[in-house]
Amino acid sequence: MGNVSLVDISKRFRLTIDGSEQFVQALDHVSFTVADGEIAMLIGPSGCGKTTALRIAMGLDQATSGQVLVDGREVKGCGHDRGMVFQHAELLPWLSAVDNVKFGLEMKGMRGGELKDTAMRYLDLVGLAGSAQRRPHQLSGGMKQRVGIARALAIDPKVLLMDEPFGALDAQTREAMQAELLDIHARTRKTIVFVTHDLDEAVLLADRVFVMRNGRLQEIIEVPLPRPRGDLGAIRGLSAFAETRYKIWQALHAEAAS
Amino acid sequence: MKMPRWLITTISVVIFLAFWEFFGRDINPIFGSYPTAIIAAFIKLAKSGKIWVALFQSLQPFVIGYLLAIVVGVPIGLVVGRFRVAEAALGIYVTAGYAMPLVALVPLLILWLGLGFAVKVAVVFLMSIFPVCINTWAGVNAVPVSLIEVGKSLVASDATILRRIILPATLPYIMAGIRLAVGRAVVAMIIAEFFTAISGLGGIIIQSANNFDTATMFVPVVILMVLAIGLNSLIVWIERRVAPWQAEIAGRSE
């Protein structure tokens, strides 16, 4: 099992602008549940609260009110039941690829031979077993993000939280990573909550797309594409892809009008 | 073809020494000196063995005070940088201590610790701890929040985050502080020898200055500068060993 829910989450930030205090309502009573094994995409313009929602789900930010549930139980703060993949991978630059993955496992209390074997198994899962000893600056952007995914997956979380993980990659690498993520998902059946601002990415990967606007959940759009999705290039040619993409586009632009 | 770095340095030094030799010979030997005269004075001191005894006397408090400054300064810097309460409570002393006119306080230190070994260690320690502390502190503040969040998201304890994320991320800053401290430690060592029992390299400086033997006075000065350059290179070498990723990331152009 591995479903994750945000229950009536609100978040207010206090900002000081030119000496005057202002409150920003980043999230306004947001509730949703991502089912076990589902891929849910949070999409919306900058400042809509999608990343804040993800960070609250992880426990990196505290909600002003509301609850985060994993498998129906409230969680407070960070836990090994959730794994985070950061926007810029955020590998520790002084550690090799395999040591970065080991770092997460050590925090979980794993030691000895099991530690090394597990780390290598997950590096292999993301196709980097051959680059295990490289340090981050010797890895390309895509490879770094693979290590980031391996690090998050290795601790075997129930839910994988991904914050625009492919946003900084070039178009070709991004497509390869999307296909690879779907492949990993097919093998591990992890629940994934994925933040993006890329319409294509949302449709290609998601079971459901959550469109956010001004700190609110605006609309939930089902993606009627079957799994496994196979060739993502061919998916782009399907009419269901174009229709879903247009629906999301409309939802995003409806907000601009209102 | 690019000139190797060491060659550029060597040419620079040779030109500098040539100018010094050329113009230095015209100066009254009481008011100045020049390289060959200093070398001659060095050979005299070396043959009598005086310089080695002095060097050894100076190095002991220097090494102990300097290492103590690193061992104490780094943890203080880490704690002050990491914890809000420690920063508010202790940061002010670190900042003030860095600017402390230690020379003025040496007589007081002598009253407390006497004229011997301990006071020299104390002066070196007090002069070199603050750059180490301040740099470590600044380094902790410069650690990207995102790296700390990696630790938090993996449920690392505060102590683990400090030791396994903040300390390695701060290492380049710590090493820079340790390098800055070399210069101050050398100055501190000489100050201590001036004020206390006249001994060591500082003793030779004072004695030869009193005898208007300017060439001999320059010998310890030059030795100290060479010592500082050597220590600096050693620290750079250590830095490359303990934080190799830093030089690789910085992509320094040769």
Helix and strand topology:
The complex is a heterodimer of chains A (about 260) and B (about 250).
Chain A (H helix, E strand, L loop, with lengths): L3 E14 L2 E15 L4 E5 L6 H9 L6 E6 L2 E2 L7 E4 L11 H11 L4 H14 L15 H14 L4 E5 L7 H18 L2 E6 L2 H7 L2 E6 L2 E7 L9 H6 L1 H19 L1
Parallel strand pairs in A: 3-8, 3-9, 6-7, 7-8
Antiparallel strand pairs in A: 1-2, 1-4, 4-5, 9-10
Helix pairs in contact in A: 2-3, 2-4, 3-4, 6-8
Chain B lengths: L4 H20 L10 H14 L1 H33 L1 H15 L3 H12 L3 H26 L2 H9 L4 H38 L4 H11 L3 H29 L1 H7 L4
Helix pairs in contact in B: 2-10, 3-4, 3-6, 3-8, 3-9, 4-6, 5-6, 6-8, 7-8, 8-9, 8-10, 9-10, 10-11
Short description, anyone?
Chain A is of the alpha/beta class and 258 residues long.
General description of the model:
The complex is a heterodimer of chains A (258) and B (254). Chain A is α/β, with parallel strands linked by helices and 258 residues long. Chain A has helices spanning 50-58, 97-107, 112-125, 141-154, 171-188, 199-205, 232-237, 239-257, and strands at 4-17, 20-34, 39-43, 65-70, 73-74, 82-85, 159-163, 191-196, 208-213, 216-222. Chain A has a domain at 1-81 and 161-169 and 193-258: 3-Layer(aba) Sandwich (Rossmann fold), CATH 3.40.50.300. Chain A is 38% helix and 27% strand. In chain A, helix 2 (97-107) packs parallel to helix 4 (141-154) and helix 3 (112-125) crosses helix 4. The longest helix of chain A has 19 residues, at 239-257. The termini of chain A are far apart. Chain B starts with a helix and ends with a helix. The mean pLDDT of chain B is 88. Helices cover 84% and strands 0% of the residues of chain B. Chain B is an all-alpha fold and 254 residues long. Classes of the chains: A alpha/beta (258), B mainly alpha (254). The A-B interface holds A 58-60, 78-80, 82-84, 86, 88, 90, 92-94, 103-104, 107-108, 135-137, 155 and B 144, 146-147, 149-156, 160, 164-165, 168-169, 171, 243, 245, 248-249.
